[in-house]
Amino acid sequence: MSLAAAGEYYSRFCEILQSDSVSFLFLLGTSFPAALLLKYLPSPTAKQVFSITLALIQTYLICATDTLLPICLCICSYIALRVAPKRVCGRLIFHVSFSFLLIFKLLVFSGMFIPSYLVDSVLLLMVLRVCSYGYDYQLDRVLEGDNKDSQPSQICSLFDYFGYCFCFVGYWTGPFFTYHTYNKMLHSKTLIRSSKLALAHMKPMLILLPLHMLQNTYNSLDYTMEEEFLNKTFFYKFLYLVAGFWTFKVKFYGGWIIAEAICIACNLGTVEKEDGTVDYSSIINIDIYNTEIQWELAQCVRSWNKTVQQWMKTYVYDTTHLPKSVRTDFVFGLSAFWHGIRPGYYLTFLSAPPIIKLQQKVGNLTRKAREKSENLEMVYRVANWILVRALSGLFLAPFYMLDLNKILALYSSLYWIPQISIAIVFVLSIILPQGERPQRPKSS
Length: 444
Fold this sequence. Notes:
Largest sheet: 2 strands, antiparallel
Number of helices: 22
Strand order of the largest sheet: 1-2
Order of helices and strands: HHHHHHHHHHHHEEHHHHHHHHHH
Shape: globular
Structural class: mainly alpha
Strand content: under 5%
Radius of gyration: 23 Å
Number of strands: 2
């Protein structure tokens, strides 16, 4: 076979991998068996070489020459780690990595650069890893987690840092994990028989996969951007959006459950208890039950993308010097920026804080009355559950559409009811008194 023919076959193979379903199956088909093998490798170095090699091969097959982008981010952050004074190391790497992300997003938004498929996801998750390492090094908890008695941290070698950044586990979809968790997996001598546990963890896919296929067939979100949809009645559009964005979440559920199973398969973040059970709560990224059942938006948010939520709390909310009254707004704004600079992200993320604040205030003001009546409590919870689902359907639309003109066309066809609703919510969240907050039990 000539080199020209081989190059043509390779180009066709890369084009096939650009499909959502094919790339997903390719990553699953290579990552899950590799995770089962990883824990049996004889040394930490062997595990690192194997993990880095697989991640780079996967990235090159899907992202081609854009593989250089995550490599550049990794090297630039390591240089900053080496040259920065320790007392400002975390903040400097935070600014370096998010500046790198901003330049990438601006080039894409302006049309000057067209990224390959999924390279954006790789960069987003790598930013979390490099920022966490910088702050953990600054706070002397790189190898000791949150242990207050930990020894002063030393900067790891470039090879170890590269191995953490390019660990194929959690590389494409998460979950996020710290260097401390990664290092424990490398040096663990306890082999937890996790293959059956990982397969059992993927049982929800038997339901989620058919739901995703049905959604693509009967409830496509692309239809919401067509002229025919905009001409439908208000209630048709409203119900379609609520149903559509419920099934839209199914794709994320499936991806995160499989990613969690891959972590379990290689013993990343798993701890065997004295009774023989295995605790892997540190790498759980989604709590489907609470996401769907909880009637408070704040609880729904905490159950969604949990490891990134923890990253935001640990490295943003707890480290910023802003007043606590605006920290939540800042975190949601940074979450929008982390996803991108398109208007849709900000319209979605910044609509959440007013709803959360209003629910908290109304809950505090009505608590005494609800405590006296179980029926009133039930009515209150059901009403809030319906409200959260309805508003989620309306305010998740910009996250999918992204383009401002398409978003304005949709909201115009809805008579600007979503904007009027969020304006009312915003005003009420400001003018209503805080009310009496529930007393939290004192910890020992």
